[in-house]
Every structure is written in C-alpha cells, then in structure tokens.
Amino acid sequence: MESLRANAQFPDEQSEDGRFVRQQDAFRDWVRRDGSSRYPAVAERYHLYVSYACPWAHRTIVTRKLKKLERAIPMTVVDPIRDDRGWHFGDRFLSELYRATDPGYRGRVTVPVLWDTQTERIVSNSDDDIMRMFETEFDALGDAALDLYPAELRHEIETLNEAIFLAVNDGVYKAGFATSQAAYEEAAYALFAMLDRLDDRLATRRYLFGDRPLETDWRLFVTLVRFDAVYVGHFKCNLRRISDYRHLSGYLRDLYQIPGIAETVNFDHIKRHYYMTHDDINPTRIVPIGPLLDLDAPHGREHLHGTG
Fold first, then answer.
1. For residue 84, what is the domain's CATH number?
2. 31, 123 contact by CB (below 8 A)
3. Are residues 68 and 133 in the same domain?
4. What is the tally of structural domains in the chain?
5. CA–CA gap between residue 86 and residue 14 (Å, rounded)
6. Which three-class secondary structure state does DSSP give residue 210?
7. Which CATH number fits the domain that encloses residue 166?
8. Could you read off the pLDDT of 90-113 as tens digits, one per residue?
9. pTM of the predicted structure, to 2 decimals
10. Considering the domain boundaries, does residue 117 fall inside one?
11. Active-site residue list
C-alpha cells in the first residue's frame, strides 16, 4: 500500500487505498466591510496572487473581473510551471508569503492567496472565501449592482456548490491523482454521473439557477473550460468530452462569451502547467498541440430563461 502513496503527485494527500484527499486551507481570515474584523474593505490594501492555470485561483480572477475590482485589488500572476520549490513570480516564491504568515507552515503552498500589504500576512488562501469576499464585502469599491450570491437562493447555492465540488471540481483531481484502479473508477464514474445531471438541468434553463449566472455557475465554469483541453486526456476523464454534451457545451460557450471572461482564460498557462508539472502522470512533459476549441461559436441558449 505504501507504494500507492510513494507514486502520488502529493504523497501527503494520498490515502493508503489510492485516493487523493485534498488538504484543508490553512488561512481563513476575512475582510469585512462593516469593520468587524482586523481586515477592513479598503482599496489597494490587499493583493491577489493567482495562477491562470489553476481552476481554484481562476474562480477569484473571474469574480474580481465581474465585480470590477481590478483597481481596488491588484493582482500578480505566478509562472505556470511549478517546480519542487513551488509557485514563483519573478525571483520570488509564494512560499515566502506563507512563511511570513506562519514560520512553521509545512503544508503544500497553493493559489490563490489574498495578501494584506499592511500587516504583511495572508488573509486567506481559500478560493471559496476569497470569491465570497469579493462578492459580498467589496461592494463600495466595485460593482454593487451585481449580486452573485442572492439571499433568496443562498441555501440552494450552497447545496449545489457542495455537490459540484465533490463530484466535478475536485472529482477530476480525484480521478487524475488516483493511484489505484478502484479509486480512479469511483471518482470518474461519479464525475460523469454529475455531469449528466447538470446537462439535464441545463436543458430548460439558461444557467444553473435561471436567466443569470451566479456564483455556482462560475465555480463550475473553471472546471468545464479546462475539461476537454486537460482533464479528458491528462486525468483520464474520458467517458465523454464537454463538447459531446448537448447542453453543457453551449452553456460553457455562453459563459465564456460574457464580456471580460475570455481574457481570464489562458490555455497556454493551463496546458503547460498540467502537462509539465505533473511529471508522475506525464513523465515526458510533452504538451499536446490540441484540442482545437471554438469557444466563440454561437451557443444557441438565448431562448432559455426558465428555472424548471
């Protein structure tokens, strides 16, 4: 059983039966607009560190873009190739920020990171929390009219978020990082069962909750946009492509074509990161030249408005 862990991309996050078990986020403080935390919502105090390759970081990039927070929250993009020293930007490493916040930190260094330039500490390395902070705590500095987490749908949003995270967002990693056949098949079949359910859901509504995209749509988008380019081949999630789905394929193009979103997607970073960094899966580090994805093609979903 020990060999199943030894051959894993992240041995400390691998169970003895070959399952990938993601580490928990280490820093989960909050910026509050009402002044109830040590981190007030003020412009240019916080800095966002992200990777264009990482879907978790991509969620925060999208939310920052949609909420028009680019000027209020500066952003640095790390190099897509993460080596044994971790993520880096210029001649600095993201691990320096982790050690500055907790000199004893021993976990994996991840993106995104929301950094407080005043206290020189990490506020949060939780994509869930950073996304939600951008949605709810920075309205005075961005687009207050855009509500991605409406009060009347919060329970439904949380429920669907959790289901999509377990089966899809983390599901592709549980399949791709599995080191046993049983663990791989369990994750892969659960992934496609959920994609089938989502495709059915999108048959009668334009977005997951109706006629406008909400937080859950963007949490799903970052996985869908990487799926055919990376997860089908590299992570062996190959029962179907997103382009094979009648409704999910148009839904993906619909979201991609919303103004500002396409510029948050960098396929060069995405493909180089996965294929060159995960050398346990792709030891040659050869980056495939395809697939050719036409995300600008008509999506044909304008007529859908319902919630049924």
1. 3.40.30.10
2. yes
3. yes
4. 2
5. 19
6. strand
7. 1.20.1050.10
8. 999 999 999 999 999 999 999 999
9. 0.94
10. yes
11. 54, 173
